[in-house]
Amino acid sequence: MTGEKKAMVELVEIEKYFGSVGAVKGVSLEIYQGEFLTLLGPSGCGKTTTLRMIGGFEEPDRGDVLIDGVSVRGKKPFERDVNTVFQSYALFPHMSVFQNVAFGLKMKGVKEKEYRPKVEEALKLVKMETYADRLPKQLSGGEQQRVAVARAIVNNPRVLLLDEPLGALDLKLRKQMQVELKHLQKRLGMTFVYVTHDQEEALVMSDRVAVMNSGLIEQVDSPRDVYRYPRSRFVADFIGDTNLLDCVMKGIDRDYVLLEHGETIIYAVSHYEAAPVSGQPAHLSIRPEDITILGTEASEKLKDDRKIGSKDHLNVIPAVVEEVIFVGSTAKIIVRTKTPSGFTLTAHAPISSAHAMLGQEVYVSWEPDQSVFTTE
Fold it and tell me: DSSP letters along 302-317, please?
């Protein structure tokens, strides 16, 4: 996203209740023109209900939805300048691919000589122009998904809503379609609002990710910042693999925040504006790929090279390797620290060095700025 950002969709304190259950609880969010924004969260977090309120399939009990600065409260889905792609695709089985894509334009009274080039262009964009005469039953799942997208974009809506559209596809095809959808969104310059529970999918495709939990948005950030700098324990735990430790803040030492887990002091760097408060509970997140496993000699050399309190000070903790799990090109190394509380950590290591680690006494280390903590 470059230049001045214009809000294409604005959610203003929207709430939605089903009986006494709050599905969405006062959500406010700006979604920018030409942005790919993903609503990410577990089942029941409110992401699909939020999408449906943008699309007009649900009305908020409180708050407002604006599209291009205009309130759409009370407007039907067809009265809003949005289109929706559902997981089921909802193609008409008795119509050809061309007829499915043209259906919306025909219903609006557009003449064939006007809609034909638009339909052909939409099919070309999704690489389905040679399938125009086929019926949906003659298409694979991925091909049906492309047709559903073509039908949604042929009207050139300001906003395209996508409700887990890749959920029914196998893993390999889903990864392929993730890349294709992202490229298509960039070519069109259209605002995409995407719903998924798949963290990797959200990180791969999005300009920004809004992480939802229990009807609320916990964090809205770039994929990198959601992953590297989670602002709550839930976000840290939900996005990717991490080591989570419940700690207590002990104070500040020069550039570092000191956290205590059990009797172990861990050096961290605050990534947030709020000043740490001594004695305050904190949740520490350390990604497995940020942890280095060292032999005794390498650890002693590091401690000699990097004096305590220096800018480059490492966290270095003795441990024993308890388990080695092979996961393709890397291995998960599970260690138990040789500290009074004896907590476990998971690290990643190359397979070439992992097989010899089981049962070995080692040291685990990581940089202070890779100790990401939150108080929420």
Answer: HHHHS-TTSTTPPEEE
Length of the chain: 376
pLDDT at residue 65, as a whole number: 97
Q: For residues 12 and 161, state if they share a domain.
A: yes
| Phi, psi values for residue 54, rounded to 5° | -70, -40
Query: Domain of 146?
Result: 7-235
- Same domain as 191, residue 270: no
**38 with 195: CB under 8 angstroms?**
yes
Over its C-alpha atoms, the chain yields an Rg (Å, rounded) of 25
Domain count, the chain: 2
Q: Are residues 63 and 193 in the same domain?
A: yes
Q: How far apart are CA 259 and CA 281, in angstroms?
A: 9
Residue 359: closest CA among 326, 376, 334: 334
Cα–Cα distance measured from residue 295 to residue 301, given in angstroms and rounded to the nearest whole number: 10
pLDDT in tens, 293-311: 887 555 555 555 554 334 4
Q: What is the pLDDT of residues 42-81, one digit of tens each?
A: 999 999 999 999 999 999 999 999 999 999 999 999 899 9
Q: 265, 277 in Cβ contact below 8 A?
A: no
Please give the span between the terminal C-alpha atoms of the chain, in angstroms, as a whole number: 29
Query: Are the C-beta atoms of 147 and 91 separated by less than 8 Å?
Result: yes
Selection from 255, 55, 67, 234 nearest residue 161 by Cα: 55
What does the alpha-carbon distance between residue 255 and residue 90 come to, in Å, rounded to a whole number?
56
Tokens of 276: 């740490």
Phi, psi at residue 8, to the nearest 5°?
A: -90, -35
Q: What is the C-alpha to C-alpha distance for residues 37 and 33, in angstroms, rounded to an integer?
A: 10
CA dihedral 260, 261, 262, 267 (to 10 degrees): -50
- In angstroms, rounded to a whole number, what is the distance separating the alpha carbons of residues 254 and 212? 35
In tens, the pLDDT along 252-291 reads: 776 788 899 988 889 888 776 666 678 889 899 999 999 9
Tell me, what CATH number does 248's domain have? 2.40.50.100
List, edge to edge, every strand of the sheet that includes 191-196.
Answer: 82-85, 159-163, 191-196, 36-40, 208-213, 216-221
